[in-house]
Amino acid sequence: MTTTAIFFLIAGLGLITWVFARARAGRFIQSGVASVHSLPSYHGWYAAMWAVVPAVLFLLVWSTVAPALGSYQVLESPLAAQLPTDAFERAAILSEARALSRNPDLKVFNDAAVQLAPLYSAADSRYAMIGALAAFLLCFAGGAFAFTRIRPDFRARTQVERTVMLGLLLASLIAILATLGIVASLIFETVRFFNLVSPFEFLFGLQWNPSDKIVDGQATGFGAVPLFWGTVFIGAIIAMLVAIPLGLMSAVYLTQYASANVRKWMKPILEILAGVPTVVYGYFAALTVAPALRSFAVSIGITDASSESALAAGLVMGVMIIPFVSSMADDSIAAVPGSMRDGSLAMGATKSETIKQVLIPAALPGVVGGVLLAVSRAIGETMIVVMAAGLAANLTANPFASVTTVTTQIVQLLTGDTDFNSPMTLAAFALGLTLFVVTLLLNIVALQIVKKYREAYD
Amino acid sequence: MSASNPPAATASRKTDWMGDAMQRRIARRYAAERRFKFFGLAAVAISSLFLAFLLVVMVGNGAKGFITTEATLTVDLPAATGSISPDQLTGPRLSATMASIDVRRIFDQAVQAQYGKDGARYFATTAWTALRDQLIDNPNLVMGKTRFWLPTSSDIDRAAKDRSTPEAEADYAVLTQKGDVRQSFNMQFLTGSDGTDPARVGIWGALKGSLITMVVTLFLAFPVGVLAAVYLEEYAPKNRFTDLIEVSINNLAAVPSIIFGLLGLAVFLQFLSMPRSAALVGGLTLALMTMPVIVIAARNAIKAVPPSIREAAMGVGASPVQVVFHHVLPLAIPGIMTGTIIGMARALGETAPLLMIGMRAFTTTPPDGLTDPATVLPVQIFLWSDEVNRGFVEKTSAAIIVLLVFLLSMNAIAVYLRNRFETRW
Amino acid sequence: MLDNTATTSTKSKMSARDVKVFYGEKQAIKGVSIDIDMDNVVAFIGPSGCGKSTFLRTLNRMNDTIPIARVEGDITLDGENIYSSSMDVVQLRARVGMVFQKPNPFPKSIYDNVAYGPRIHGLAPNKAELDQIVENSLVRAGLWNEVKDRLQDSGTALSGGQQQRLCIARAIAVDPEVILMDEPCSALDPIATAKIEELIHELRGRYAIVIVTHNMQQAARVSQKTAFFHLGTMVEYGDTSDIFTNPREERTRDYITGRYG
Question: Which CATH code is given to the segment(s) C12-256?
Fold first, then answer.
């Protein structure tokens, strides 16, 4: 029986409990008991809750515990005694055997795994059966307990509502859990990485040439400055050179000049740019933009232009960011009081003079905040740079050369068959932590600026 | 005060607005005004032209991906397999019979018979699987001699659509002359899965992976997001703990997506040892990413429900939970739906975090469950874009068209919902 | 009502003939004719929504900034129709300055606020002359002594009354012929209001001044001529002393005695 089927069965049992409990509570009303506290359906919900929630919680816990119990049983078997003593090899064989037990078509590398696989199947199905039985018992016990408590004066509604509130609180806690999960996992792996590479070397080293080699407990080739430079060059310089003028001017045109009709059509069209998935931009950059830029570069005499250039990635990323900058600029300009615009026009300023000398300076904090948010988005962007920027860790300001970025290297380090303890895998987490901290700071600063600015005109 | 006025001010009074210098200056200012307006128009035009260019390139390349080039192959099956009686094709014996036929050998023989020793160059390397599929679909074909249409090699395919190597173009000319080649709609692209031969690959495997992943994401992110929004907007006390929740949510909404991939890798795969490449893990990871979007949208929708509704419900004796679940939430649903669709569209287009948790499995069969190795449409696009074989270019673009159709229609629905229900109060 | 408006004086700086303003379908001004001369401060009074501010904004074409607004009739400045194609709206607004209800200094330094107009219109060929214009304007607006040591401070850092005088200084820096004031004191405290009123007295004669006010005492204090607006029409126009002591129209009397408004 699959876990999914068990879940559905328990849900079905919950429904049955609901119907019976509701009917039972309904009879109190028909029999004319004077003071029934809660409506019958609340009694139904109360009973169904008792039937479903403990059983489901148990199943969730069991599904994380059961594989470990299965492994334990397999290790107890005589076959397991023949396994190599090296912990790493052992673990590899065991995990292969487990995979094989789930998917018999799998190709295996260790013959030992083939013998162990049936043991795994047996152990897993045994524990699955135990788990299912226990879950059903819990389901019946819970339902029965709740059923006995149904009385006219029982405050089922209060109980149900208390549980609902608990559910709401738990749902809100998931955000904190996720944040903690991100911070904890990044910091944990980064600390392990810094045991192999000094933080100083990582943050200020100029050589990025990662390898698994560990000499004297230290790994080399993890100087991330070229990555930081590439990220800044593409995301904060080239992309912004495209996105700021185009985004700002689009916002100015659409809010100050365009007729209502043009605005109605053009705004959603610009927003489509933000809805196109990044992998599509990446493909477009690699397929069309990069070759075109390369032939352009060659035609103007830059013979060493790379087919994966910083410019191609930056340009396309800039276009992707346009709607973002444009909508932030739009909001900021809209927040400037109309009286300022009128004041300038009444002085005899033309519209463009008003925009350039009054509106944009007045909206500047908001625009700057928006640009910072855009930068934070650009440097965290992955697919465009993975597909169009290349892997060469060059420290160059030549836009036609290939540079690499933090996100590209994270993808590069984590795809392939590296194991979790290698310095290369850990380096990806260190890069991830750097990226996380930088984008977080940018966001905090940007939101502070925007907030201050909004308050100034409120 | 006016007594202190310097006389110079009075003397220089009345600017000569009609003078030549002033007129020239005005002309210059108007020129600057027109220039500025033109720059604005140009910015909008450049942005939309870029979008148009992108779409044209994708459609131009991708449209060909939906067309397949096929050549005829006449196969005399009874001659190759020995006679098979009709009752061998019925009921339970059918699959055994079909398994006994060595389609690949029959295919090779038929090709040699019809096109000579080098005839294999006309067909895709996996064309025999197309023959097998047609036989499985229609077992009665086993009984006779049939003219099959099978996919050509990708060189000839490109010769038919565009240009190719001189040899392939010559081959194509010969085939055309004999009427042995045609172009037809590529059904295999919509129903097949990944493969090594561009002529036979399809997106159904990746699409199904995407759908399963999205279902997981929706089932996790939607309830959690809405409930968290209800709590924060309606019940949460104003204290530091609530602030912490709010900061976490706003922060999660701004974290680069690849960080969620690292989280999935470290927590779900490494720490909880969930299966690699599974839609379950992909859905979990994307749910964490989508939840803040839904929370923020749902909070705005709930905030927009006027307080008078709450007061009215309270007034007739509804409990706080009843007020929210019977009155506020139903009114906020359109706004919540809009935010959810936008969040789901973003999750559907997401690639980087799924690469981190290994959802780049090369599977030639669609995933069947939550824990099967799977891939998703954007990752499939990424994988195909890396293929050396030129035949994959049009498949990649065609897959992009399918992805964009999904995303744009989701966004269109969201915009429609927003416009339809936004100005209720 | 036409009798008192048709008295076209030769000194008339601006005159309006049968001006109608429409916002889309709605007619906001229903045929107003008036003459404004250099010697007198003209006050527009009337209940809110009567169209006095709307009419004021037609005098320097600020209604052009509202897409649905449409103006009919003739308005002339020195005999030249300001809605004709030969009249340049940028120049018109430089010649007919405006001060708004709420002080609206630009988020720039005090100096740059005043220098804004002269700069865009190119009125000062060099820095020394620009300094001179800024100083003169601030002196004339009665603000010089308060701000001369902090010209580089932001204009928005001043008090409300100072901000409004800064806006007046800004308006007179381009040396306009007419200054329109749209309830310039409604956002100010009484002391600041008194200063502005004093300023209006001093500016009289140098500029034609039109002031919209909802405050009848203020109209009586600062103006020599008063126009009473009601429901988009100008009910009565005459010497301020006459309007307040001896109005000819019933509606004017009702308003002045506080029956409505």
Answer: 3.40.50.300
